[in-house]
Amino acid sequence: MRVVERPVEVPVRTTPTRRDWLPLLGALAGQIDDGRIYDRDLLDLFNALGVVLDAYRRRAYVRSGSIDFQRQARARQVRHDLT
């Protein structure tokens, strides 16, 4: 008998980072539009998205309106970069 060592890769699920969420939500929207999410799953998805929106609304800067300021500043930056 001969013992041989070799690396074995095991896939590990990772938690999405802040940079992952925009493309993931875009992909989810596309799958809903394409009908790839079953109607029977839409109520659970609706509830989960409600939890996300509640958490989003609890952020102080969203309630204070400063998010609108950030959005305007970002739009100005994009216009500046295009010129």
Task: Give a verbal description of the structure.
The model has no long low-confidence stretch (mean pLDDT 87). This protein has one domain (18-82). The relative contact order is 0.05. The protein is mainly α. It is extended and about 70 Å long. It is built from 4 helices and no strands. It starts with 17 loop residues before the first helix and ends with a helix.
Element order: H for helix, E for strand: HHHH
SSE class: mainly alpha
Low-confidence stretches: none
How many angstroms does the end-to-end distance come to? 71 Å
Short structural summary:
The protein is mostly helical and 83 residues long. It has 4 helices and no strands.
Give the tags:
mainly alpha, single chain, 4 helices, 83 residues, extended
Chain-wise SSE layout:
Layout: H1 18-34, H2 39-57, H3 60-64, H4 66-82
